[in-house]
Amino acid sequence: MRNTAFVVLALMIVGLAVCSYKAMKHDKSIKHSLALLLLALIPPIAGNLIIIASTSRLPALIGCYVYFLGMDLAVAYLLKFSLDYCNVKWNNKLAISVVYSLFTLDIIQYALNPFTGHAFDVRQITVGTAPYFQTVPYIGQTYHRIVVYGFFFASIIIFAVKARRTSRIYEEKYLMILLSMLVAGIWESYYIFSGTPVDTSMIGFGIFGFLVYYFALFYSPKVLVERMLASIASDLPDALFFFDGDRECVWANRQALELIGNESGNLENVGPMLAATFPKIKDIDIDREWKTDQVIGTGENARYYTVEKHIVTDDKGIFAGTFVDVTDDTETRRQLATERYNARHDSLTGLYNKEHLLKSIREMLRKNPDVPYHIVFLDVNEFKMVNDVFGKDFGDYALRCVADWIASDMTENCVYGRLGGDTFGVCQPVAEFDPDRINEALENFVVRKGDKEHHLLIHAGIYQIDDPDIDVSVMFDRARMALSKIKRVYSHIAFYNDSIRETMLWNQKISAEITAAIEERQLIPYFQPIIDNEGRVVGAEALSRWMHPEKGLLSPAAYIPEFEKNGRIIDLDKYMWRCACEQLAEWKTTRPEMFVSVNISPVDFYFMDVRLEINKLVREFGVEPSRLRLEITEAVMMSNIAEKIQMINWLKQDGFIVEMDDFGSGYSSLNMLKDMPVDLIKLDMAFLHDSMFNNKAKTILKSIVGLIDLLGMDSLVEGVETEEQFIMMKEMGCMYFQGYFFAKPLSLEEFEKYCDNAAA
Ligand code: C2E
Ligand code: CA
Ligand code: CA
Question: Which has the closest alpha carbon to 415: 463, 361, 363, 375?
Fold first, then answer.
């Protein structure tokens, strides 16, 4: 008897110590309270063990003290565990100090017991032949029992209340521990009150310890799991149908019942109703896994579903049932569609954006290799000005109007979009292209918004795809290059041809080469003689020529227009003025009367201080300013007239002779004649050539020469090619002459020879 109880209690102590250690390693939050409770159970069990093992009075007494004080410890930690486990926050300070006081009092009275003997005593009994010790309780022991039972019941009550209050799902979690406590309590009480000679009451507490350890850490009630799963499944957005092995529906969530229109919640008809909802799924009843996309309804009301059937098997892999999972993809699809739309379309106009346009054109060309297509590049001219003058809102509106026009003009065989900013792109079958219609539309493109109105100037460059292997973006480059051909305002469309591309490449090439060409003196001045009315060579116009190392002698037409466009003309002009001054300096003694006219491009006035540059040059070479004549064109007068007039006056003050070049070639007006303070007017050769066959033109020319004279200016006529012209102009009163009749522009050597021959 003694040995068995001893072994059992000792094993329990070891077991509880191990459990306590393992509990600490666990990751549930209750682990601390649990581990402490398990440890606290060890002292009373140890006390119990000592009492049973004792064969003399003293160890039995010690065992009793360990037992009773240990009991205090154990119930105290039981209380703490109960509060923690049941999530009861207990902050009442008074109540807490009462608890402490009750325990403290118990400890004190045990401490006094050796002297007073009021709590308990032990007496020896004999069981069989062996001596055992039994507690004899006095009043103090009753107090101890009240405290211990009190707190034990308090713990039971905490669990009972929690179990009642909590949801049905969790009830079990508390009930299991409550039950263990009751078992331990009854076991203990049985020993205490039945008066069995050998007290093994703590075995009940040990078992309680193990049960709590198990329930608190490892036991998860089946019902709880089931309920939780069901609750999660109910909250899932998917519709879920569970079928058993006989294809009877055993469970369906709310979404599932709603989907098939089952309001009653009666599970009997779920199978057929599900089949009716998705009539296109033929094998909806077949017990194997499948997945399909389904559409219900059409257009705006269409809803998209993914329907999946899954097989459920038991632990051994034997078929147990199936479940059908229906996902409603409608929102995701709509969102995806919107995102896709936004990624492909321009937000302002709703047309395709550049990337998507190029991609779509590539696809169309690949699909229809036999259809001839045009690539059209549309550009709104001076759109920045529209924004600046009318505001961004109007600008946006204007772009939308262009987009709407493009969209309305195109058939489904075309692809079109916005390339960016104020440019649009179209790919259209050649057969559908009607240049007259487009020209007319572009001619009358007026945008009206509120009280604002503006005539948009839109140009279309067109490339007919002759090489389908080049990339679409290159095709658009070509179409855009064609725009460079549109110079006149009244034409709106231009076609790309290879010469445009060559011109562009050429322009790029010479622009890259110009600086080096000037340094290497590939650019040289030619001199075209200027004759006075007595036939004497009085001066020369310096005209540039480019001795190109690959292309030979280039005339200005090959490079001047491009340099005027990109501003490089200022380098060329400065260089030509320097050459002229250099030459004048050389002629100072040999030909002191000779003058040289140089050209000043309108662009020069934009990018440099012409007056400063020219004065610097004549000073550097010590040239008399009147020897250097300055040719400016009417184009200079197109803007800031007052400023230009001032400039001319200053140049005249500096001693230069200023000439108006190409008079009559552009939008010249007689009016300008009186405003321009120039010394000489150079009549454009077109004037002369017209008047040879046209009497009216001749009369006009004559009166202009007279007018120039009247205004106190000299006149020079350019392009004199025949003696007849020379005589006619001389009779009209012209002062100077220039033209092939006398000489073409000549190299320096030729020019000097020409002068010497003329003088001889
Ligand atoms: P421009 O200033 O009007 O020069 C006169 C042009 O008429 C020259 O052409 C000359 O060769 C040509 N010409 C002269 N007499 C006759 C004739 O009897 N019949 C015909 N059909 N043509 C005649 P070029 O040298 O080709 O120069 C063309 C234009 O290039 C010049 O027109 C001028 O505007 C510009 N240019 C030439 N060199 C320079 C320069 O160094 N700087 C600037 N800014 N422009 C230049
Ligand atoms: Ca000139
Ligand atoms: Ca001229």
Answer: 361
Residue with the nearest Cα to atom 10 of ligand 1?
A: 745
Structure letter (DSSP) for residue 300: G
601 alpha carbon, closest ligand: 1
The CA distance from 691 to 308, in Å, is 92
Mean pLDDT of 475-479: 94
Q: What is the pLDDT of residues 71-112, one digit of tens each?
A: 999 999 999 999 999 888 888 889 889 999 999 999 999 999
Please state the atom number of ligand 1 nearest to the C-alpha of residue 718.
15
pTM, 2 dp: 0.54
Q: Nearest ligand to the C-alpha of residue 528?
A: 1
For the Cβ of 395 lying below 6 angstroms from any atom of ligand 1, the answer is no
Q: Are 504 and 474 in contact (CB under 8 A)?
A: no
Ligand 1 pocket test: pick from 522, 661, 665, 718 the residue with the most ligand atoms within 8 Å of its Cβ: 718
Q: In the CATH scheme, what is the code of domain 2-223?
A: 1.20.1070
Q: Do 2-223 and 517-752 show the same overall fold?
A: no
Neighbours of ion ligand 3 (CB under 5 A): 661-662, 718
Kindly identify the ligand whose nearest atom is closest to the C-alpha of 720. 1
Average pLDDT, the chain: 90
Answer yes or no: CATH 3.30.70.260 is held by domain 346-496. Answer: no
Whether residue 4 is predicted with pLDDT greater than 60 in this model: the reply is yes
Q: What is residue 667's predicted lDDT score, i.e. its pLDDT?
A: 61
The per-residue pLDDT for 224 is 67
- Supply the CATH classification number for the domain 517-752: 3.20.20.450
Confidence band of 315 (pLDDT split at 50, 70, 90): confident
- For ligand 1, whether the C-beta of 134 sits within 6 Å is no
Give the residue extent of every domain in the chain.
2-223, 236-334, 346-496, 517-752
- Does the domain at residues 236-334 carry the CATH identifier 3.30.450.20? yes
Flag whether pLDDT at 504 surpasses 90. no
Rounded distance, CA 270 to CA 244, Å? 12
Provide the pLDDT confidence category of residue 668 given band limits of 50, 70 and 90: low
Residue 199: name the closest of 213, 187, 211, 184 by CA.
187
Determine the Cα–Cα distance for residues 256 and 238; give it in Å rounded to an integer: 8
* Contact yes or no for 84/33 (Cβ under 8 A): yes
Q: Whose CA is nearest to atom 41 of ligand 1?
A: 544
pLDDT band at 221 (very low <50, low <70, confident <90, very high): low
Structure token digits, residue 151: 């707190």
φ/ψ region of 128 (left if φ > 0, alpha if ψ in -120 to 50, else beta) reads left
Q: What dihedral angle (degrees, nearest 10) is formed by the CA atoms of 189, 192, 195, 200?
A: 100
For residue range 170-199, what is the model confidence (pLDDT) as tens digits? 777 788 888 888 888 888 788 777 767 777
- Pocket flag, ligand 1, residue 290 (CB < 6 Å): no
